[in-house]
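User: My collaborator sent over this chain with a note saying "see what the structure looks like." That's all I know about it. Can you take a look?
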Amino acid sequence: MFESPAYLKSPLWVQEGFLSLRAHARKLLREGAAFRRELADVTRTQWLDEKAMQALQLERVQGMVSHAIRHVPYYRDLIREKGLAPDFIQTLADVQQLPFLTKQIVFDQGPAMLSEIARGPRFSASTSGTTGMSMTAYRDLHAINRENAFVWRCMMWAGLQPGEPRVWLRGDKIVSPTAEQPPFWRYVKADNMLMMSSYHLSEASASSYIDAMEKMDPVVIQGYPSAIFLLARWLLTAGRSYRGKRLRCVVTSSETVTSEHRDLVKRAFGCHIIDWYGAMERMVAIGNCEHGTYHAMADYSYVEFMPLADGTHEIVGTGFDNFLMPFIRYRIGDSVVLGDPAYRCPCGRAFPVVEQIIGRVEDYILTPSGRKVFMMSNMLDSLPGVLEGQIRQESLDAVRVLLVAARGCGPIKADEVIKRGQMMLGGDMKIVVEEVTEIPRTKNGKVRVVVRDIQP
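Assistant: Without extra context I'll predict from the sequence alone. Here is the result:
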């Protein structure tokens, strides 16, 4: 909707009306009686003790594996190949009799990953993530309601109650990429939320963003860390204090947060950060509680933390809720540093403690006008026929997009790639598309989605 000429050419009040109608429709679909039941459930399960939590995990893993064996072709064939009985899951460790699931397997299997008995609406999402490979996953309404319940539980940890004002500063293309003057945001009445464009944020526009935030006076600011940190640095550099009265917390996700970042936000905004780490595949959720401790949410999924040679642990997750497209023993490609298993967080929850999340650093593209455009992976998501991609910037006014074509999918549509790039970067950036056979890996085997060889 945001990229349609009808939306982009409409006056501001019409755009805000569109956004509010869209939010209202989403609330009707995703925040009804089913959502309220799930929210009540996850509000309860967060306080289970360790023994009860393990019992819950075993029940959920058994249910998901049983469903997958009976109704998902990939898993049905896999169980037959391995010679396993349908009820082979008797303990959580038994899930290790199944091989790892990877993004390449999901990509290659296609429709065989979907349940044959699924009914009702399907919701799709795509990611290139830290591996650079584009993949589409599908979810049912139950999975959407459960995810929304966990998100709202996190927001309640941050001090936000439904209906209270908040600011949203992420990768939504709500403003024309050619816009040069504020407002770079739109008010969504149905959510009581000021939705701000992260694409237009720069040091030159930071003052107007802060002014709009202070006028809104939100209880919570949700955003990409990189965008929040730019505003925090601007406040401190300008010697200006944030003048909002109601702000209780900044909620971040999708990028790495360090202790220095937390201190920066505390000094600039006068509040703490709650950071959320999740995955499009919905097989892991790690978030800060009120005391700032990272917890792996054991009522969300079953995570095997596989030890690596460098002392970190790879995330291998089995989701509990998406019966349309189960992800069982999925290797997302990220790793963590685990906390002391003997530590008990003052919050009182029995969730495992994570000290640090590794593998979510994303670079930005610098435009000739001085804008820093983050989350460029959005440009590569769901590109037809594309297996992997990387965006490289070697000069201020141009980027190269390297793309690996998927087998048997025909030529890559370069015009679509250029159109997406111009929507995010503006028309003054030259975009060159190159089809390659492979994308260079880093030392740890990952693909950097963005490689920027110039300095700001």
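A starting point for your reply to your collaborator: The radius of gyration is 22 Å.
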